[in-house]
Fold each of these.
Amino acid sequence: MHWFQDHQWEVWLGVAVLLMIAEMATLDLIMGMLAVGALAGMATVMLSGSYVVQAVVAAIVAIAMLGVVRPSLARRLHHGTEIALGNDRVIGLRGVVREPIAPLHVGRVAVDGEIWTASADVDIPAGTPVEVLEIRGATAHVRAVPGPGAEYPEYKEIR
């Protein structure tokens, strides 16, 4: 116990380092905020030799970091565009009908270099530009969209 009294700032630094190592394993920013509290406890050693004062300062700083800094930092780090994977990546893309589509008959569309089975609520002839609205199983549900020079009859979507 005598060693801890002589090396208080080293103990706080060791705790901070261990918490940062734990933060690297979890990446949830909680252990990092606690490590900042431990560093505040280390800085308090210079001002006060009391263990209670050091612990209180470390606790106050850690709680403040968890309540004030972590939410905004987490929001900033986790904010970004979502990456569409799998079949969801074609939703919103445009393609061209290769085989005619009818409400009760699936056809085929070329989307993003792939051929998809496609369904629609209206008749869509071959060669019509379409947009993928959703994926149902392995079938793309599409709607016709006007394209450059596209000539096809007006349609009305059924919902």
Amino acid sequence: MLPDIQDQYEPRGIPLHRVGIAGVRYPTRFCDGELKQSGIATFDLAVTLEEHRRGTHMSRMVEAIHETMQELDPRSLPVALKSAAGRLDAAEIEVRIALPVATTVTSPASGRESWQASDVEIVATWNSQMSRVATTVISEVTSLCPCSKAISDFGAHNQRSSVRVAIIGRDDTAYPLDVMSIIGLIREVGSCPIYPLIKRPDERFVTMQAYEHPAFVEDMARDVSTRLREQQLEHSVQVRNFESIHSHDAIAAVQWSPDSAM
């Protein structure tokens, strides 16, 4: 038999908090009950390593991705991780998954359909005491500056804004809000949604809608957080304005959990 070097005794007595593989691009079929989409996802998979063990079984990590995560349902990730932890003889395991998703949007005046891409990141952790899944969606809206509108004789400056929303679930409620719902929430904040396909009547519509709904970066962060607090969802929100008249961007962030409100 070939020697298993990584399974040798480690004499230095130093445990490692993360050992594993990163940047594994693998075909997946994402399905969370609302959104179904196939594509290539990027996986990082890591475990804790006890002080007496020299290494971990990295080939088994690729096997775990192949066998339990190609059909990617965030609701079942804790079960998949528990199985992988058993195979790897690990006390704690974490997977990070990044993939783009696309949803159809309809232009507001012309009625033309197009695809809007958003980025999804899922970080799931399992150990014998708990499981945790953080589902992050990053999408864009338009924002128009309230101050610019108030002080200008004509018009106001606007820009694209990146909105990053992370929903944290635990144990039996590891996935409390699906990706489509998070995308829908993001599109409702700011001054106007983003539409990839814009004809002239659409451009008139979105320009006027943005002018009628000015929003600071702070407003958008608070608006998202308010709606998630109403649902008692643990979350973090980060908003970044790609400013059109400044040499810098504007940012705002907030995080909240039901426990912190008590």
Amino acid sequence: MKHLALATLPLLLAACGGEAPVPDDNPMEEAAHSDPLAIPVTLPPQVADFPALSSRTCIDVVRFYGEALAAGQFAGAALAWADPVIDGERLRSLLAGYERPSFTWGQPGEEGAAGSLYCTVPGTLTDAADGAKPPVTGEIVLRRVNDVDGATPEQLRWTIRSSTFVEPLERSARS
């Protein structure tokens, strides 16, 4: 009897002018349509989303950073800093005067000090959309823990410590 009632539900709805429910293959989409106040959840980018950020070569991180900025992917670029003070919105505002920022990088220089490695990369920032805008030269300094026993993957990855592009960017006091 129970099966008969369920089977006749679409017929009863159709007879009353209603529409029979159509099964949805995507329950998340159904939930979004059923609640007009539902806000789609967009997860922020994570370091694991970008293999270049875990590279053992500092120039890979610098290239990723420059390419992300040039593409307007400011939240992804901010991950190269690993510092909550330098977020996507801050990077966006610092480059607001550039329609199409473009970076050219020089040769990195690495040195070690007290269990840490430092990498300094010189570069030039231009606006590919505005040839009249003068180029800005500067450098990015990165740091990572030297290969010491017990170092975590986060400690072993290169992160930006400072940048002289656009204006000096210093890390928060926590680092």
